[in-house]
Amino acid sequence: MTENDDVARPRPAATVMLLRPVPGAEGARAECAMEVLLMRRVASMGFAPGAYVFPGGGVDRRDAAGDLPWTGPGPREWAAILGTDVPMARALVCAAVRETFEETGVLLASEPERAGEEAITLDTATDDWERDRLGLIDRSRSFTEVLSRRGLVLRSEWLRAWSRWITPRNQPRRFDTWFFTAELPPGQRARDVGGESDHTRWTDPSVVASEWEAGRMPMLPPTVIACAELADRRTLAGVREARRDIVPIEPDVREIDGQIRVVAPDGGEFPLPGPDSAP
To answer: How does 119-135 read in b/e, with b if 16+ C-beta sit within 10 Å?
Structure first.
């Protein structure tokens, strides 16, 4: 037996930092302060119960299959950005959009653009859309099927790659997660749809670190760090203009002064969230 035999293989996953202008500031959409959507996982979840997270989840095998209607950078271009092969790049982009819709009702898709015509705003809160959302969750419907039937295209240009985090090697459940940013499409709104979360909130990313330190917002280290990085960019325009190198970040878990801590590559230390971390 080698020393790696007991190391769980990380599951590919995607998560989306959904951003919107501070309410009332839409007139200066790109230049105004922003908020990020955070969801609190229900206490019964096996991974990070009670923690605030971004919408997202694991890649489904069907995310890399089918003839999904798509605009913006194609899978080959995304592969170069994300540092993966083409099928995995396609799967990650699809998973990011699908999981965001499943968990918030926000769909990063639209009708194909036509010259001289304005795209119609999607209303995904209707009964027929809700049937599709639930069908995606129970896997009775595929994402390709849902978009194709409605004549919609996935808007990959609405996503921006931000970072990649891998769960420490000594954890029993591991994920290799690509983080994306996306702005809330005009006319859409995030809904509290239940399921894996019991509460959602739009939050100023600059207050997340202090809320986490005070124990009011339990969350995993990558979430804290990602919010701090967003806060450094200050505005939606700042996020758009950020230049990001997507390299895998795999922290360590160590015992420091009698406490189990997650240690990021830059030396930052974080408490390891446990099953009793729900507020």
So the answer is: eeebebeeeebeebbee
